[in-house]
Amino acid sequence: MQPLLHQRCFNHAAREAAARCPECQQFFCRECITEHDDRVLCTTCLKKLTRLPFAQRFAFAKMLRLAQCAAGIVLVWFFFFLIGAGLLKLPASFHEGTLWQVHWINQE
Fold first, then answer.
1. Banded pLDDT at 104 (limits 50, 70, 90)
2. At residue 36, what are phi and psi to the nearest 5 degrees?
3. Could you give the CA distance from residue 1 to residue 42 in angstroms, rounded to a whole number?
């Protein structure tokens, strides 16, 4: 194997290699590598290491949706509770003489 001095970037053939990715064992230039957890990795390997498994993402999304639904139900319940509490605080004199209490049929 040639030393790092004679290696070229895996993505850019015209550029000299600056480092070797410990995961995929390829050589890369300075623009193609990044430091993560005190290691120098290529972007492809970094994406593989930081990606969550599909099952974990789906379970998290499902739990988040369930929590949002529960919060919405509690919010709607609280809204109607406040309306009911406000209506109960109205005095009885407020309803005197209202249309629904007027006798439409004369009782003789």
1. low
2. -145, 125
3. 20
Q: 10: which 2 tokens?
A: 């895996």
Two tokens, residue 21: 């990715």
Give the bridge partners for 8, in sequence order: 16
SS3 per-residue string spanning the chain = CCCHHHCECCCCCCCECCEECCCCCCEECHHHEEEECCEEEEHHHHHHHHCCCHHHHHHHHHHHHHHHHHHHHHHHHHHHHHHHHHHHCCCHHHHCCCHHHCCCCCCC
How far apart are alpha carbons 46 and 29 in whole angstroms? 15
Do 31 and 20 contact (CB within 8 A), yes or no? no
pLDDT digits (tens, 9 = 90+) for 23-80: 888 888 888 888 877 888 888 888 887 776 666 677 888 899 999 999 999 999 999 9
Which residues sit opposite 49 in a β-bridge? none
**107, pLDDT greater than 60:** no
